[in-house]
């Protein structure tokens, strides 16, 4: 049987392609959107990571999610820097979650409160993605909107506490392979992972509607 890290990766492959090729992501990576669209997207991430990271320390003792909790991953401080840069000193008052973002954050909170294994599905979907495709987004954002390399505006994509992302991802996959869950629970984690991707895609869809190309 395939290892769990292979299973979760394979099972979410189709959903990944869908997220990656969504109109909003394609337009963003194609350099066709203004910085306001990028700021609006970053703003949505704030609500998602607030749900992922507020009280995440409580999960540190959990047998399933605990081994994955790592302060080097925390993105909220970086998002605060980026949003301050994008929106100015009063940035906090400018933030508003789209309904799709609200639904995504609510599901993350629900898992964090009641189902640590489900939380792990969300943890994997975001952080491993940020360490992978996130680097492509950073490069594009720097070039399109002129942010300093790894500077304010793209701090979200910079993991100062992770020296070697490839090694980190290898270790993360090893943790997945040794996760303290039986086969049925692993299946449920995979299902939740697909749901996590779908929640991301829904946010992209809303953003796409808010920032249509006036071609
Ligand atoms: C345009 C946007 C995206 C691009 C270009 C992209 C690209 C990539 C690439 C190249 C990898 C492989 C890295 C490796 O093998 O180490 C990857 C992995 C991954 N991506 Fe994305 N991605 C994008 C969007 C997303 C989104 C929206 C999510 C979910 C929110 C996501 C979640 C993941 C995850 C979880 C992995 C790790 C798969 C694994 O090895 O288990 N990605 N991405």
TrEMBL record:
- Which key words are in the record? Heme, Iron, Metal-binding
* Database matches in InterPro entries: Haem_Oase (IPR002051), Haem_Oase-like (IPR016053), Haem_Oase-like_multi-hlx (IPR016084)
Q: Which Gene3D superfamilies match?
A: Heme oxygenase-like
Keyword Plastid assigned: no
Signal peptide stretch: none
CDD domains, alphabetized: HemeO (cd19165)
Q: Which Pfam families match?
A: Heme_oxygenase (PF01126)
Protein name, UniProt field: Biliverdin-producing heme oxygenase
Q: Which organism is it from?
A: Streptomyces broussonetiae
